[in-house]
Every structure is written in structure tokens, then in C-alpha cells.
Amino acid sequence: MNTPDETGINMALKATPPIGVAGANMFAHVSIPDLVNWLTALYLVLLIAHKGWNMYRQLQSGKERDESGE
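Given the sequence above, the corresponding C-alpha cells read:
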């Protein structure tokens, strides 16, 4: 059941995805699937770099964990 007292913030949050797609469609040379693929690739690169940085810091600090996780 939908409540009739929907706030402006809720309406704005519901309108955000269509507004984002309309904004992305304004760029004629980039399609939505291509944009999603590029953003996913960027996210993966950042995730791998962050994991590598954490592993490097752990190696430099000399903290080693044994098999039991202690």
C-alpha cells in the first residue's frame, strides 16, 4: 500500500535514475552500455589498486597472519 504523504526527498530519489539516463543520452558519442562498461572497468581497476596497496602496506609493516587467522 502506498502512503499519500510522500516527501519531496523520496520523490527526488525516485526520479534520479531516469534523470541520470537522460543526462547520459545527451552525449551522442557514448551509449549507455558503453558507459556502464567503462565505469565498471574503472571500478575494477580502483578495487584492484586498493587491494594491492593494502597488501603492500601489510608486507611493509611485517604483519603476517597464520593459517588460523590470528
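The mean pLDDT is 80. Try to locate this feature in the C-alpha cell string yourself.
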